């Protein structure tokens, strides 16, 4: 494309958020939408996630994000003629201790007040719903039958097809290198262009995504975005007759940050280690994985002694409060840069990605969104050390504290 071409919207990042945001913006009225991707579409964490999607958020906002995303996944075939492979499995969030149970029951009341069809299962009922679960290692948990999982590589294909059919332009192997801005006499600042490795693109609207690299992307834009990266490990066991069933609920041992679901007649399980230093990491941490494998065997006895068929690690993003970021880029002085929108799902790209992307597209085009209240989800909630003024969403993997 012409390096100085004027563009209605530039989206930085071709992962789940950037991909879906560009589609929503293009179908929402933007005439020319360009996506910048320094590598290839979906090359980052988007294609290596576990694909779990739940509506059981820890705050009203995250409940709404999960519900909207699940509804979108269910409507994709009708809307797009393709889909992300969503499969309704049900999701059980386990309580191991009395404290877990008390907190879980309080969350259920909040979730019900948000219109979520969630129930608390006693230990005996939970074991009936999930037949491979050990009967005496837990106290039951919250359960939503309509939660499920997508196929991450298929999701990348789905948003790539949606982008292509809607007319989004994709510049792969093209790096974002900075923003051009202009100050007005009233002190306001507005974006006027995006600097790239291929030259300048003139635009008055930019959505900035980036997953685990979002902090570095923010620095290029002249902003501090307190998003960290951490190793996330996923493994799949060899097949076992106990898992050769059409449907079995996904389960989350919330206290340990260990989750699992069916995968190819075996069990897929994933985890992150909160004691690690944050940063890029794609190697396997075998001692920690084996520790979690032993815990899994206590909760799912059928996995005891099973060999692993697949193991992989990817760097996953997180925010200090485990909540999404939706709001403008801020200058060093704290002034919003008009026309910019930072979009981050905080490590929940499969789960909240479509909803966060839709909200980001709304903000970019209209300056507002009715999907959720984003008033407190901007960068201004963080202090100079990256600490958030908001309470932490309690339903998340236990990522490191520091970013």
Descriptive notes:
The two termini are 37 Å apart. This protein has helices at 16-27, 60-80, 98-113, 123-129, 152-166, 214-220, 286-299, 349-366; strands at 6-7, 9-12, 33-37, 52-53, 87-88, 91-94, 119-121, 141-144, 148-149, 169-172, 176-183, 189-196, 199-203, 206-208, 228-237, 250-253, 258-263, 266-271, 308-318, 325-327, 337-338, 340-344. Helix content is 27%, strand content 26%. β2 (9-12), α1 and β3 form a beta-alpha-beta unit. The protein is globular, with a radius of gyration of 21 Å. An eight-stranded mixed beta sheet has the order 7-8-6-16-17-18-15-19. Strands 10-3-2-14-22-20 form a six-stranded mixed beta sheet, with helices on both faces. Strands 1, 11, 12, 13 and 21 form a five-stranded mixed beta sheet that branches. The mean pLDDT is 94. With 403 residues, it is of the alpha/beta class. It has a domain at 6-48 and 153-227 and 321-381: FAD/NAD(P)-binding domain (3-Layer(bba) Sandwich). The longest helix has 21 residues, at 60-80. The chain is built from eight helices and 22 strands.
List the SSEs and their pairings.
Layout: E1 6-7, E2 9-12, H1 16-27, E3 33-37, E4 52-53, H2 60-80, E5 87-88, E6 91-94, H3 98-113, E7 119-121, H4 123-129, E8 141-144, E9 148-149, H5 152-166, E10 169-172, E11 176-183, E12 189-196, E13 199-203, E14 206-208, H6 214-220, E15 228-237, E16 250-253, E17 258-263, E18 266-271, H7 286-299, E19 308-318, E20 325-327, E21 337-338, E22 340-344, H8 349-366
Parallel strand pairs: 1-13, 2-3, 2-14, 3-10, 6-16, 12-21, 14-22
Antiparallel strand pairs: 4-9, 5-9, 6-8, 7-8, 11-12, 12-13, 15-18, 15-19, 16-17, 17-18, 20-22
Helix pairs in contact: 1-5, 1-8, 2-8
């Amino acid at each position: 494309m012409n390096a100085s071409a004027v563009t209605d919207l530039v989206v930085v990042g071709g992962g789940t958020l950037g991909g879906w945001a560009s589609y929503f913006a293009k179908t929402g009225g933007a005439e020319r939408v360009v996506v910048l991707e320094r590598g290839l579409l979906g090359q980052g964490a988007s294609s290596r996630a576990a694909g779990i999607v739940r509506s059981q958020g820890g705050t009203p906002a995250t409940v709404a994000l999960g519900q909207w995303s699940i509804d979108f996944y269910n409507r994709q075939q009708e809307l797009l003629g393709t889909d992300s492979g969503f499969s309704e499995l049900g999701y059980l969030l386990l309580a191991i201790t009395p404290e877990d149970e008390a907190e879980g029951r309080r969350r259920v009341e909040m979730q019900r007040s948000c219109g979520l069809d969630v129930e608390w299962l006693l230990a005996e009922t939970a074991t009936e719903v999930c037949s491979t679960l050990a009967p005496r290692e837990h106290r039951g948990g919250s359960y939503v039958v309509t939660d499920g999982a997508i196929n991450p590589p298929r999701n990348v294909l789905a948003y790539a097809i949606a982008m292509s059919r809607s007319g989004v332009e994709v510049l792969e192997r093209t790096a974002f290198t900075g923003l051009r801005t202009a100050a007005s006499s009233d002190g306001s600042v507005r974006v006027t262009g995006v600097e790239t490795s291929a030259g300048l693109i003139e635009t008055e609207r930019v959505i900035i995504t980036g997953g685990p690299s979002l902090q570095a992307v923010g620095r290029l834009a002249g902003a501090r975005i307190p998003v960290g990266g951490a190793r996330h490990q996923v493994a799949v066991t060899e097949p076992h007759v106990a898992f050769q069933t059409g449907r079995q609920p996904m389960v989350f041992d919330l206290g340990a940050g260990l989750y699992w679901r069916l995968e190819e007649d075996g069990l897929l399980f994933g985890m992150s280690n909160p004691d690690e230093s944050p940063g890029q990491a794609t190697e396997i941490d075998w001692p920690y994985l084996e520790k979690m494998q032993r815990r899994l065997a206590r909760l799912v006895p059928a996995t005891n002694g099973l060999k692993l068929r697949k193991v992989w690690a990817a760097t996953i993003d997180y925010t200090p409060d485990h909540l999404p970021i939706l709001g403008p880029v801020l200058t060093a002085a704290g002034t919003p840069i008009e026309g910019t929108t930072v979009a981050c799902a905080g490590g929940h790209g499969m789960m909240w990605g479509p909803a966060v992307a839709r909200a980001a597209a709304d903000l970019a085009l209209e300056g507002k969104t009715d999907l959720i209240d984003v008033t407190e989800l901007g960068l201004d909630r963080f202090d100079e050390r990256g600490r958030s003024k908001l309470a932490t969403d309690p339903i998340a993997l236990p990522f490191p504290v520091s970013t």
